Amino acid sequence: MTNRKKVPLRKCVATGEMKHKKELVRIVRSKEGEVSVDLTGRKNGRGAYLTLNEESIQLARKKNILANHLKADINDEIYQELLELAKKEKQ
Fold this sequence. Notes:
- By secondary structure, this protein is α+β, with helices and mostly antiparallel strands.
- The chain has a single domain (about 10-90), classed as Hypothetical Cytosolic Protein, Chain: A (2-Layer Sandwich), CATH 3.30.1230.10.
- It contains 3 helices and 5 strands; from the N terminus they run βββββααα.
- It has helices spanning about 55-60, 65-70, 75-90, and strands at about 10, 20, 25-30, 35-40, 45-50.
- The protein has a 3-stranded antiparallel beta sheet. The protein has a two-stranded antiparallel sheet with strand order 1-2.
- A hairpin with a 6-residue loop joins strand 1 and strand 2 (about 20).
- Helix 1 packs antiparallel against helix 3.
- The radius of gyration is 14 Å and the shape is globular.
- The mean pLDDT is about 95.
C-alpha cells in the first residue's frame, strides 16, 4: 500500500472554486475584530480563503464578500496588500 498525503482543499470565497490550500491566501479576523492577511494559515480567528489573482481580489472588493464573510469592516490596506501579493505571485 502506498501512503499518499491528503492535500487539504479550501473554497475561494470570491469565485467559489475548490483549490489546494497552498494556492489560496487566508484573511483572518481575530477575536478583537482586527482583520489581517495570514500567510502562514495558522492564526487564530475566523478565516476566509481567497485566490491570489487580481480578478478575484477586485471581485471580493466590489461585492464586499470578505466583509460579509468575516462580519467585519475591511480596510483598503488589506486589499492593497493582497494585490501586491498577487503581483509578486505572478512574477
